[in-house]
Every structure is written in structure tokens, then in C-alpha cells.
Design goal:
multifunctional enzyme, VC0802-like, 29 helices, binds NADPH dihydro-nicotinamide-adenine-dinucleotide phosphate, Carbamate kinase, Rossmann fold, 4 domains, kinase, binds the ligand N[C@@H](CC=O)C(=O)O
Length: 812
């Protein structure tokens, strides 16, 4: 014997009902199938009862609409010749419903018994209509009135089965029947007094489980609209996978914690008789589904699933008045029990100084009131503080039989959540070790479940959610590089690099649900909303995505001054903008500390030498115990290009303009020509080497006439033209000595300096061509011959690829 249950969506309309009937008649095995009401009907019946009780005459319209829905189902499902009996049954049922609702309307109150009577009509109607349809197809079967088999107490709304009598009635009924196929309404039963009772939300699953257990059925099948129990809620996690086999206890944990496919109490009767429960999909009957059974042999995964429950409130009672006093917990929980408040999660500190419980949000304030009342004496005498209530919380839980005695699971769970800035309000793990639960803010649930899913089920694949601020020379190249490389990263590094946002100084293009489509991002950005800091930062934070990286490809001070906002929310920052790391030392340190404290990466390799590994190499030297003795460097791609190309044939201004057109200069070229850019770079290297230097500490000699710094960039170029003779003189002086001009930076014994130098032909810097940079690290280990890094030190493409490399490094 097999017992099947089909939920509301499985019997939502004529088309679905046909699918159900195909499933139950697909093989000749003996079967009972239990059905829910047509989709949405129970809610509408509850509404009718409430409207009538609230003296709202519109309940009659609702009855007509509901009646119409059922009449329509009959008309589409049954051939015209066989419709009349079913149509009159529907009309009769709705007349009865109308009579009851009218009584409620007159009395202006609804008893629990009347409510059960009203909502029980849904299953009666659906099962009768499906039965009529099977008769029309000549499918031999029996319709069972579940009210005659399931006997309950009088606890209307969530009645308790009286098992002894119920089991006997079920056995007797099936022993006496010669049929092979049965259909029964779920959810409804009858009390000893004869009144209709219901088994609570999801009660149709329970009806099926009770009958399956009584009959020692071979299997219980729960047919729904998903292909089994999933590793996480598929509405939250795109990559959620079906769990092929799961133990009863794991399934109970998952269903209690929000996996809605099976109504939790269903599992108990089946487990008691070791009846396997299958979760199958009515709309994909060929899918294997999930089997819930005694033991679940599973290779690999230690965690079976991740679930969550929302609408949680946390209550904390704290104070010395509980320390060493037996009975405090009893008082606490008795108060809640007497108020019929269900406790979802409990934690108590070992110092006995506090008890903390999670309850459903609807009960939160009432729970606080009853506990405060129970401890009124201790609170009045200031031995305890009044209960602290916190709302808008949820619980996420890891579930798995194999977590028992498997060290490190909790560590992985909490470090993954912590790395993503998810604050944990309370934690619980029973000694069975099958469930580790954490109470978190509801706003973090999606991120938390995805983070945990990635950590425990997608170890091979990591997702990185990237916001790119700045789409000029470097930013636009970066986007193109990412676009070209996304497939490669997925295939070869299992890294799903998603661009979620792109912004310039005026507008931001932010993805709604998924990543941005990069095929025409320029146009989409033009069409996007106008938004700037600080709202832009707020939007990025509020997206609340896991593994988020903000990439600063601007030269903007305000953006650089907002990194702390991101880092302090565990959002990584990658910057080629040099302003933050060369601002006041306190801010630079603060960013470093936030990065460490909040487990967020902060990478800025391209601040010095563009794509060259200048900062990374310095860090590697120091980490391995080396010490920096001296740094000598040419750090300006622009100035190297300019002095390599200027010989007086073209004016100095024209050569600088060429450097700008090639994309080597800062957005404001005066920063390059005035030496600020090089000062920033040597400052950053000195700081990375461990020295708390400020910009003012750098000795700098100017080669530009001072008047070139006032006015606009146009004025600046005009000034360069005006001073052409000055530049020619500089050139000639070096050339006459067989030297080349190089703008050099140096750092030694805690002091940094920058300035233009005439470099002789036998010096390291002489053979430095184009826009190349060179850095010489003299260290304790590289004492005589320095460690040399040399190559292209400016340009959109190389800088973008350095930024890209930093982004990849920020992946978890
Ligand atoms: N070029 C190179 O070789 C190297 C450059 N860098 C650094 O790269 C950074 C970018 O340089 P580059 O691409 O040449 O500069 P561009 O001027 O070409 O581009 C700057 C971009 O930043 C945008 N922007 C400015 N302010 C904001 C803001 N508040 N919010 C969002 N976007 C903003 C601009 O938008 P809008 O167009 O609206 O103004 C523009 O899209 C600089 O910090 C530079 O120091 C680092 C190493 C090498
Ligand atoms: N403007 C800079 C670009 C790299 O930082 C330079 O010219 O070196």
C-alpha cells in the first residue's frame, strides 16, 4: 500500500488535477491519495469567516467567488454529461457555507468549532471533484470521508489525533474494502462530540502520515511543486540542490527550521513505523525527488541542508539575581508555557547571568510581559534587568547527522558569516550536534544562507560581487577585461565574478536581482539613475551581497574617504585611486585595521607602478623577515615618457599632452608634473615598509615654474608653452653631460625625497624607456644587488589588469 498526498498547487486547476490522476494511475499498486483544498481556498475560507464575524457583509461576495471557482473547476474537468451531480454538490456545499457564515454574521463572533467547519469545506470539495473526475474516466476507486476515520480531541484548529481508535478505524476500513484506489480529503477529522475538527496548517500531510502509519504502508509520498528537499530554500539560493536522501531526524530539523516542503509533524508517525517518505514533484514526476528514511548514507557532505526561519524576536533576561539560584529557568519557561508561547531557541550563559530565548515575533511582546511579571520581585529589587526585546530577527541553521563529532563545522560557519559582516545575536547547538543555529538580523538572511551554502555546498565555486566606481580610462578597460575573462574564471578558477554596479561621478547602474549585462553597459549607464555619494555607498551596503568588492577606479577624494564605510561592513575595497593610502597616516592605519578587524580585503597594488608587483613584493619581503634598507625608484610613467620623448623638437607641452592622450597621466596632469603623484607613491611604499610618514615629511624639489599651478588645466598647458625655454634648458644641461633626465624617488633611514635628476649613462635608471617604472629594493638580504622591478608603469590596460588581479585576490 502506498499513501500519497497532493498539496494545493498540485490540485490548483483542471490541468494540474489531470496530472495528479495520471500519477496515481500510472501503476497498478494499491494506493490512497490524500488531497488538499484547491490552491488558495483555505485562506479564502478563513477570510470569509473573519469577515462575517467582523460584521462585514462582503463575505457573501467572497462566497460567490469561491463557489464560482469550484463550479468552473467542475465544468473544465468533467464532460458536460457528467457534470450535474458535481455542480449540485458544489452549490449545496456553498449553501451550507452561506448558512454557517450568516449565523456567524448575526452573532458577530466565530467559535473555533464554526471556523473548523468553514475551513473544512475546501478539502471536502476538492476531493469530491477529483473523485467525480475519476468516475468520469471510469477509474475504479473509493472516496473516503476522513472525518469518519480520524478521531480527535476537541482542540479545534489544531486537533490531536486519538490514535488507538483512529488506527483501528483505518485498519477496519481498509480490511473491509476490496478497492485498489482510494481518495480522501486531508486536514479534516471529527471529534468524539461529532463536530468537525482540523489538524492545523499543513494538516493534509499529517492525514496522509497517520493513515500510512496505521496501515504500515510501503511508502508515504508527499507530492508538491519542487523536486525534493533542497540544500537551501531555492527562493534564496540559486544553486540550491536536491538532497537525494535524508534521515528522518535531519528532515525534522530542516522542516522545523523553515524547509516548508513537508509539514513537520508528518515525519513522526512515518518514522515510528520506519516508512520511507518520498518528496516528489507533481510537475516533474520523473525527477528522483528526496527520500526521507532511517539512515541516510551520503558521501562527502557533512552538512545536509541550511534552513532559516524569519519573524523571530529575541528576549534576554540578565542580572545577578539568577546566579546560583535554582529554579530561575523553571520560572522563566513556566511563564512562557502558561502563556502558550512556543520557544524556538534557547541559550544560557554558563555564568547563569543571562537567559536568552527566541520566540515567534508575534509572541515577542507578550512573552516579555509574562516573563517580567514572573520576575517582578527580582526586577523591582534590581537583581534582574527587565527583559530586553529585540525584533526583526531570523534564525539560520546548519543541519546534518554527520556534523556530530565532526570538528570545525561551527568554526567554518561562523567565520564565513563573520567574513561577510553578518553579526550573530545568539547561537544554539544541541548536544545531538545535528543542528547549529544562529540568530541574525532579518536583513542579512539572504546573504547568510547564500554564504553558508557557498561555504558548505559550493566549495568548488565562489561568487564575487563587484561594484566598479569610475569608468574612465582605467575603469572602462577594467570592465572590458572582466567581460572577456568571466567564462575563463568560472571554468578555471571556479570564480563567478559578477559586476553588480557601475558608476561615474553622476550616475550609477545597479543590478536589480542578478548581475549586470555588460554587453551595452555604456548606454545603460547613461540611462541609469542619478546618484552620488553618500547615497551610492548606502545602496551598495544595502545590497547586502556576500563576497562584495568595491573597486575605486576614480581619482576622487570623497570616494577615497568612504572606504571605511565599506570595510567596516566587511566589504572588500580594491583601489587604484592613491588618495586614501596617501592621505593622513591615521586614515591609512584605520583602513588597514578595519580590513583586519572585519576580514575584508583592502588591496591597492596599482597605487605604485600600475600593474607591476611593487607593493606585493615589498609585503612579501617584509613578511618573510627581510628589512627595507633603501628604496630607489622612478615611479612616474608620465614623467619618464615625457623626459624620454622631449628633446626640444616638439614643445614640452605637446609631449605632456601626448602622455595624457596615451592615458599615462592622472586625470589632472599637474599632479604628475608637479611631483605629487610620485610623492604619493613613495609615501605609500614607506608606509607599507612600516614608517608612519606624512606627505609633508617628503622632501621634494620642483622643476616646474610655480605659476603653472594656478588656474585650469588649459592654463597649465599655456604656462608650459610659455616656459618652453626653461624646459629646453633643463634638457640641454643633462644632454651636454651625456645624462638623461629622470624624476627619481628615494627612501632611506625613514626619510623620503623626490626630484628631477640628471642620470649618467652608467646608472641603473639611465636605460629606462617609454613610460616604464623601475623600483630598486635594497634590503638586509638584497644588500649589494637590489631586487629590481621594472616595466610599464602607467597606462589604462596595464593598470586595469593590476586592479583585476587585486579583485581576484579578494575572492574568499
Ligand atoms: N592611468 C594610469 O596609468 C594609472 C591610473 N591610476 C589611477 O586610476 C584612477 C583613474 O584614472 P583614470 O581612469 O585615468 O581617470 P579618468 O578621469 O579617466 O576616470 C575617472 C572616472 O571616475 C569617475 N568618477 C569621478 N568621481 C566619481 C565619483 N565621486 N563617483 C563615481 N565615479 C567618479 C569619473 O566619472 P565622470 O566621467 O562622471 O567624471 C570617471 O568615470 C586614478 O586615481 C589614477 O591615479 C593608477 C595607476 C595607473
Ligand atoms: N599618472 C601616473 C599613472 C600611474 O600611477 C603615472 O604617470 O605614473
Amino acid at each position: 500500500m502506498q499513501v500519497l498526498k497532493f498539496g494545493g498547487t498540485s490540485v490548483a486547476n483542471a490541468e494540474n488535477i489531470r496530472k495528479v490522476v495520471n500519477i496515481v494511475t500510472a501503476d497498478p499498486q494499491k494506493k490512497l491519495f490524500v488531497v488538499s483544498a484547491l490552491s488558495g481556498v483555505t485562506d479564502k475560507l478563513i477570510e470569509i469567516g473573519n469577515l462575517a464575524a467582523g460584521k462585514d457583509p462582503s463575505y457573501t461576495e467572497k462566497i460567490s467567488a469561491l463557489s464560482e471557482q469550484h463550479l468552473e473547476a467542475v465544468k473544465t474537468l468533467l464532460p458536460v454529461t457528467t457534470q450535474s451531480a458535481s455542480l449540485s454538490l458544489v452549490m449545496q456545499t456553498f449553501n451550507e457555507l452561506e448558512d454557517i457564515a450568516e449565523g456567524v454574521f448575526r452573532l458577530q463572533e466565530i467559535s473555533a468549532a464554526s471556523k473548523d467547519k468553514i475551513i473544512g469545506f475546501g478539502e471536502l470539495l476538492s476531493s469530491k471533484i477529483i473523485s467525480a473526475y475519476m468516475h468520469s474516466l471510469n477509474i475504479d476507486h473509493a472516496w473516503i470521508d476522513s472525518r469518519d476515520l480520524l478521531l480527535t480531541d476537541n482542540n479545534h484548529g489544531k486537533a490531536n489525533i486519538l490514535f488507538e481508535e483512529t488506527n483501528q478505524r483505518i485498519i477496519d476500513y481498509f480490511n473491509a474494502s476490496d478497492k485498489n484506489l482510494f481518495i480522501a480529503p486531508g486536514f479534516i477529522a471529527r471529534a468524539e462530540t461529532g463536530t468537525v475538527t482540523t489538524l492545523g496548517r499543513g494538516g493534509s500531510d499529517y492525514t496522509a502520515a497517520v493513515i500510512a502509519a496505521a496501515l504500515h504502508a510501503d511508502a508515504l509520498q508527499i507530492w508538491t511543486d519542487v523536486s525534493g528537499m533542497m540544500t537551501a530554500d531555492p527562493r534564496l539560493v540559486n544553486n540550491a540542490k536536491v538532497i537525494p536522501v535524508i534521515s528522518y531526524k535531519e528532515a525534522m530539523e530542516l522542516t522545523h527550521f523553515g524547509a516548508k516542503v513537508v509539514y513537520p509533524p508528518t515525519i513522526q508517525p512515518a518514522m515510528a513505523r520506519e516508512i520511507p517518505i518520498w518528496v516528489k514533484n507533481t510537475f516533474a514526476p520523473g525527477d528522483a525527488g528526496t527520500v526521507i528514511q532511517h539512515v541516510a548514507p551520503r558521501e562527502g557532505e557533512v552538512v545536509t541542508g541550511i534552513s532559516s526561519i524569519s519573524d523571530i524576536s529575541l528576549l534576554s533576561l540578565e542580572g545577578s539575581g539568577m546566579v546560583g539560584i535554582p529554579g530561575s529557568s523553571k520560572t522563566f519557561f513556566t511563564a512562557l508555557a502558561e502563556a502558550k508561547i512556543n520557544v524556538v531557541l534557547i541559550t544560557q550563559s554558563s555564568s547563569e547571568h543571562s537567559i536568552c530565548v527566541a520566540v515567534n515575533a508575534a509572541d515577542g511582546t507578550r512573552a516579555a510581559t509574562v516573563v517580567n511579571k514572573a520576575f517582578a520581585y527580582e526586577i523591582d529589587s534590581q537583581k534582574l534587568d527587565p527583559v530586553k526585546e529585540e525584533h526583526n530577527l531570523s534564525i539560520v541553521a546548519l543541519v546534518g547527522d554527520k556534523m556530530k563529532r565532526h570538528p570545525g563545522i561551527a568554526g567554518k560557519m561562523f567565520s564565513a558569516l563573520g567574513r561577510n559582516g553578518i553579526n550573530i545575536r545568539a547561537i544554539a547547538q544541541g548536544s545531538s550536534e545535528k543542528n547549529i543555529s544562529a540568530v541574525i538580523s532579518t536583513a542579512d538572511v539572504k546573504k547568510a544562507v547564500n554564504t553558508l551554502h557557498e561555504r558548505f555546498f559550493e566549495r568548488a565555486r565562489k561568487q564575487l560581487n563587484v561594484f566598479i566606481l569610475g569608468v574612465g580610462n582605467v575603469g572602462s578597460k577594467l570592465i572590458e577585461q572582466i567581460r572577456e575573462q568571466q567564462d575563463f574564471l568560472l571554468k578555471n578558477l571556479n570564480l563567478q565574478l559578477r559586476i553588480i554596479g557601475i558608476a561615474n561621478s553622476r550616475q550609477a547602474l545597479l543590478a536589480e536581482d542578478d548581475e549586470l549585462d555588460l554587453s551595452n553597459w555604456q548606454q545603460h549607464l547613461k540611462d541609469s539613475e542619478e546618484i552620488q555619494l553618500p547615497m551610492l555607498a548606502k545602496k551598495i551596503v544595502n545590497k547586502n551581497l556576500r563576497n562584495t568588492v568595491v573597486v575605486d577606479v576614480t581619482a576622487d577624494e570623497a570616494i577615497a574617504r568612504s572606504y571605511h564605510v565599506f570595510l567596516s561592513r566587511s566589504i572588500s575595497v580594491v583601489a587604484c585611486n592613491k588618495i586614501a593610502c596617501s592621505s593622513d597616516y591615521a586614515y591609512y592605519r584605520r583602513l588597514k585595521e578595519l580590513s583586519a578587524d572585519f576580514n575584508a580585503s583592502f588591496y591597492f597594488e596599482t597605487n605604485v607602478g600600475a600593474g607591476l608587483p611593487v607593493i606585493g613584493t615589498l609585503n612579501d619581503l617584509l613578511r618573510s623577515g627581510d628589512e627595507i634598507v633603501k628604496i630607489e625608484a622612478v615611479l612616474s610613467g608620465t614623467l619618464n615618457f615625457v623626459f624620454n620623448n622631449y628633446d626640444g623638437k616638439e614643445t614640452f607641452a605637446e609631449v605632456v599632452k601626448r602622455a595624457q592622450a596615451e592615458g599615462y597621466t592622472e586625470p589632472d596632469p599637474r599632479l604628475d608634473l608637479g611631483g605629487t603623484d610620485v610623492m604619493r607613491k613613495i609615501l605609500i611604499l614607506a608606509r607599507e615598509a612600516g614608517y608612519a610618514l606624512e606627505m609633508d615629511d617628503i622632501a621634494a624639489t620642483q622643476f616646474l615654474p610655480q605659476d603653472c599651478f594656478s588656474g585650469s588645466v588649459e592654463d597649465f598647458y599655456a604656462c608650459l608653452e610659455k616656459n618652453e625655454a626653461h624646459f629646453k634648458k633643463l634638457y640641454d644641461s643633462a644632454h651636454d653631460k651625456g645624462c638623461k633626465l629622470k624624476y627619481v624617488a628615494a627612501f632611506e633611514q625613514g626619510r623620503a625625497m623626490v626630484g628631477l635628476q640628471e642620470i649618467p649613462a652608467d646608472a641603473d635608471f639611465y636605460h629606462l624607456y617609454g613610460k616604464d617604472n623601475i623600483v630598486l629594493y635594497y634590503t638586509k638580504r638584497y644588500a649589494q644587488q637590489p631586487l629590481v622591478i621594472k616595466g610599464a608603469g602607467a597606462g589604462g590596460d596595464v593598470t586595469a589588469s593590476g586592479v583585476f588581479a587585486d579583485i581576484i585576490k579578494a575572492a574568499p
